[in-house]
Specification:
The protein is mainly alpha-helical and 153 residues long. The protein has one domain. The chain is 61% helix and 7% strand. Strands 1-2 form a two-stranded antiparallel ribbon. A hairpin with a 2-residue loop joins strand 1 and strand 2. The longest helix has 30 residues. The N terminus is likely disordered.
Length: 153
C-alpha cells in the first residue's frame, strides 16, 4: 500500500491501480481523453461532410506511385470515395473505390472501440486487432489491383 492509501497490483499485463486518490486522477484523465477522442471524431465527420468541391474533382493525380509509373495504385480514388461517402453519395463512392465503404465502417468501429476503452468500458486495448485488420485490408486492396494490372499486360 502506498502513502495515499492506493493499492497497486502488478500482473502479467502491466500495473493496475485501485482505490485511493491516484485512481480518481486517472479516471479524470481518461474522461478527458475520451471527450477529446469524441470531439476529434465529430470534427472529422463535419470536415468530410462539408469538404470543398475540389476534393472531389478528378484533377491531376496526387499519388506519387501514379505519377512515377502511370499506373493507378491500389488506393487510387480512396480520398474522394471517403468524401463522397460522408456526403451521402454512395454510388459515386463505390465507383471511385469499392473498398472505401468497408474501410469507413472499420474506422468507425475502431473509433468506437477506442472510445469505449478510454471510457473504461473495455479491459483490453483495441489495438491488438490492428495487425490483423491491416493484413486483411492489404489483401483486399492488392488482389483486385494485381488482377487488373495483370489483365492489362
Amino acid at each position: 500500500m502506498s502513502a495515499a492509501g492506493a493499492r497497486t497490483v502488478t500482473s502479467g499485463r502491466g500495473v493496475v491501480s485501485g482505490g485511493g486518490a491516484g485512481s480518481l486522477a486517472g479516471a479524470g484523465a481518461r474522461r478527458g481523453a475520451w471527450a477529446v477522442w469524441w470531439l476529434a471524431g465529430a470534427a472529422l465527420a463535419v470536415l468530410l461532410r462539408f469538404a470543398p468541391a475540389w476534393w472531389l474533382a478528378a484533377g491531376p493525380a496526387a499519388c506519387a506511385f501514379r505519377q512515377a509509373t502511370g499506373v493507378e495504385c491500389p488506393t487510387c480514388g480512396l480520398t474522394r470515395a471517403f468524401v463522397s461517402l460522408a456526403q451521402g453519395a454512395w454510388r459515386e463512392s463505390l465507383a471511385l473505390q469499392p473498398w472505401a465503404l468497408a474501410l469507413a465502417l472499420q474506422a468507425v468501429a475502431a473509433w468506437a472501440l477506442w472510445a469505449a476503452w478510454l471510457a473504461g468500458g473495455l479491459r483490453a486495448r483495441p489495438d491488438r486487432w490492428v495487425p490483423h485488420a491491416v493484413a486483411a485490408n492489404l489483401g483486399a486492396l492488392l488482389v483486385p489491383w494485381l488482377a487488373r494490372w495483370l489483365a492489362r499486360i
